[in-house]
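wait is this the right file?? whatever heres the structure
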């Protein structure tokens, strides 16, 4: 499943490794009240999934893991920080918590538990290897242009499993060829199925933009937009001015029930990637996101370029790197 990008530039072959030293992720949380019945912990974990980390806290406190709130899942092969919530009555007990791969680095209080999606985004610091001085300049130029024009908001290779085995399971389940009893696994596979349709739709829109709009994402009549408050709307005219000002973004369909569909020209493309018989709830996802806070530090003697940036929640750092390199990555190619 090839991902295409807005500029078809020369391919760059820098490397990166998802490990604890070279791939750092920090969750950008919401504004917590500083008071309330829930304890908010800022936690650093190393080479652990979010679920593994939560399981360690649940085991230590002898509680059900479902009583621990979190906003999003973070990479295993990285050093990551994120926020979790636990009832405040466990605050004293947590002072004795120790784990070789988990560190509590801050705490506050809030009025309710953290729920999935309760974050603004994530910031990333990643080392790129095998970068010449000339390539470092090319990478910076491309990154700055993506910041201005936007990044196609594909689901990254991580979404689909190693060798896309999760995607094949999802297709088999939807086709009725595979029966899944576990409700969480079933929902996960449905989300994989929806994600594939979204990526295929976005690829077509990107190729259309490359051919018809000089490498900037082309808006179409009937697009469904999202504003800065997360509200969806379908205006009578294309929102060129507000899109360039990053006040609104066009969205793509995650097929299912009870969701806005595009209209007019936008719908002609969207309907190719819409399974209207899927009963699960649908949603819409930003077609384009805008990376921010770009910083680059080139270590000339070692051919290493350190790049840091932030992305909105649900967006993939590896997709940003793919857009810069103009090539696709796969899980088996990343160490």
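ok assuming it is, sequence goes like this
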């Amino acid at each position: 499943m090839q991902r295409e990008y807005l500029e078809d530039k020369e391919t760059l072959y820098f490397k990166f490794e998802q490990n604890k030293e070279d791939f750092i992720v920090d969750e950008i949380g919401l504004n917590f009240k500083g008071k309330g019945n829930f304890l908010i912990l800022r936690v650093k974990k190393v080479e652990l999934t979010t679920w593994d980390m939560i399981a360690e806290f649940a085991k230590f406190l002898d509680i059900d893991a479902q009583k621990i709130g979190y906003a999003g899942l973070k990479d295993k092969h990285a050093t990551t920080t994120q926020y979790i919530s636990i009832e405040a009555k466990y605050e004293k007990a947590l002072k004795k918590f120790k784990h070789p791969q988990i560190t509590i680095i801050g705490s506050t209080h809030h009025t309710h538990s953290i729920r999935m999606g309760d974050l603004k985004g994530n910031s990333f610091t990643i080392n790129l290897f095998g970068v010449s001085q000339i390539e470092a300049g090319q990478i910076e130029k491309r990154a700055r242009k993506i910041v201005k024009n936007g990044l196609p908001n594909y689901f990254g290779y991580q979404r689909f499993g190693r060798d896309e085995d999760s995607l094949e399971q999802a297709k088999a389940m939807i086709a009725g060829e595979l029966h899944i009893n576990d409700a969480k696994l079933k929902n996960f596979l449905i989300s994989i199925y929806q994600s594939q349709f979204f990526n295929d739709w976005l690829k077509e829109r990107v190729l259309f933009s490359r051919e018809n709009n000089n490498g900037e994402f082309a808006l179409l009549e009937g697009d469904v937009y999202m504003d800065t408050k997360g509200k969806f709307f379908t205006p009578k005219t294309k929102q060129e001015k507000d899109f360039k000002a990053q006040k609104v973004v066009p969205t793509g369909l995650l097929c299912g029930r009870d969701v806005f569909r595009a209209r007019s020209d936008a719908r002609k493309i969207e309907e190719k990637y819409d399974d209207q018989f899927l009963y699960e709830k649908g949603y819409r996802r930003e077609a384009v996101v805008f990376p921010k806070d770009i910083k680059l530090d080139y270590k000339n003697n070692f051919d290493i370029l350190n790049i840091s940036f932030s992305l909105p929640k649900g967006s993939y750092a590896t997709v940003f790197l793919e857009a810069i390199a103009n090539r696709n990555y796969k899980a088996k190619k990343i160490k």
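The first helix runs from residue 50 to 61. so i think its the right one actually
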